[in-house]
Write a structure and sequence with these properties.
Distance between the termini: 24 Å
Structural class: mainly beta
Strand content: 35-45%
Shape: globular
Number of strands: 15
Order of helices and strands: EHEEEEEEEEEEEEHEE
């Protein structure tokens, strides 16, 4: 099966699937820099000891269209993710990854989901993989409670992400559960909406080459 090589996570490449949250300031900057006078999304804060970056991601709640009618609330959980073996050993320049490495894809039909790494430096001995796929515009395949199609495995995208990047998956975006690679555990705060109805909060498919089985 053809191997795919992850590319660095950037907003321009990830735009069809969600948002990347990353501070544009250099980590070495330790003194307050006045924001550009024409800036509308960066403002001084905390008596000129901080910069506030406004509206860095989208939080969307579409549970009003869920079949159960049960309202959702904002929830914040923490995941401690341990390194997992995926494909060939990860390096900066090459990583062989194929569809067979993707055991499960999931999506949250009515909410965005944001993963925020805790305390991991860009140079840490661990990174995480962001694996996403668009939705097939088709009624074939497994039945889904949200009446949206299965993932298009022919258009899977794989990105490297480091500890100074957070990521927001858009509403109903197919993605692989968090995959950390390297030598260290990574901890994430995860923010989304949920109503407690399992099939409305999360849909999963088991991925086998040529087959998608709804869980």
């Amino acid at each position: 099966m053809k191997a795919m090589e992850p590319i660095p996570l950037t907003q321009s490449e990830f735009a069809p699937f969600g948002k990347v949250i990353e501070c544009p300031l250099q980590p070495s900057l330790t003194t307050f820099p006045p924001p550009p006078p024409t800036s509308t999304n960066v403002v001084p804060a905390n008596q000129d000891t901080a910069l506030k970056f406004i509206d860095v991601t989208d939080m969307k709640n579409h549970y009003g269209s869920a079949p159960s009618g049960i309202p959702a609330k904002a929830v914040m959980n923490m995941f401690s993710c341990f390194p997992r073996p995926l494909g060939s050993p990860a390096t900066e320049n090459k990583y062989e990854f194929s569809i067979s490495d993707i055991k499960i894809l999931e999506r949250h039909p009515y909410t965005t989901q944001t993963f925020i790494p805790l305390g991991a430096a860009r140079e840490a001995k661990a990174k995480y993989l962001v694996v996403v796929a668009p939705t097939l515009q088709s009624t074939s395949g497994p039945p889904f409670s949200s009446n949206m199609g299965p993932p298009d495995l022919s258009k899977v995208r794989i990105f490297w992400a480091h500890g100074r990047q957070a990521v927001t998956y858009g509403v109903a975006t197919w993605h692989m559960p968090m995959a950390v690679v390297g030598e260290e555990r990574m901890d994430f705060v995860v923010v989304q909406y949920a109503n407690g109805e399992s099939q409305e909060d999360c849909e999963e498919v088991r991925v086998v080459p040529g087959v998608q089985e709804k869980l």
